[in-house]
Amino acid sequence: MAWSTRRLADLAGTTVKSVRHYHAVGLLEEPARAANGYKQYGTPHLVRLLQITRLRELGMSLAEIAQAGESDESYAEAVRGLDAQLADSIARQQAVRAELVDLLAHPAGPDVPAGFESVAGSLTEADRAMITISGVLYDDQGMRDLRGIVADHQEADEDFNDLPADADEGAVRAVAARLVPLLRTIHERYPGTRTPPVAAGGRRRESMRALNQAVTDLYNPAQLEALRQAYRLALEDDDGADRATTRGGAPVGADLTARTRTA
Fold first, then answer.
1. What is the pLDDT of residue 194?
2. Who's near 18: CB < 8 A, 6+ residues apart?
3. pTM summary value
4. Residues of CATH 1.10.1660.10 domain(s) within the chain?
């Protein structure tokens, strides 16, 4: 029995356009033609087209299908490659679904960084912005540490958040003194957060500039001074204290970002 192009496509659950394309790229052999010029497809064409259609449904590209047809080993290699791609895709989808589950369990706005939904209620607008920027600076471990810091210190420091830009020196010193114990605790429990573990070079420099700029933009002068004083006190016994400040004296690193929860 011979079939026309349309009938062959219907039997394989595909389209005439696809059949012609498979001919063009060499995946499907051209059939013989009848005296009237019409193509006459046979069983081998149907079997091959069904194979191509199945592999396409599994996610193989046409190039991979062509390679898979070279030998049994080539086929096995193509299947292994597809399996690895699907495993990666499933892992990404599972991660997205886990994040969606968190969002449903702890409804929060789009400005709440992933992983911090459960404490969104205690995060100020500045906190959320700082944590979001930290996602550019820190690797997965750094962000896990930051989430741990947030979970350990969910109480908001109202004194710091309410510190006005024109606060007097005494008020600034008082707030700084209350920050010191929390900062020292963070340094002890999360020593790896002191320096952002990001790639060296321009990206690191630009990321640190972005963090420092964010600090200046998000906190008023009195709050910045309270942070500077708190870090000087918390690090006064640390040989690396000088390295933990910027040229303007403002602290940098994960513990500054952690200030979004400990201050």
1. 58
2. 9
3. 0.53
4. 5-58
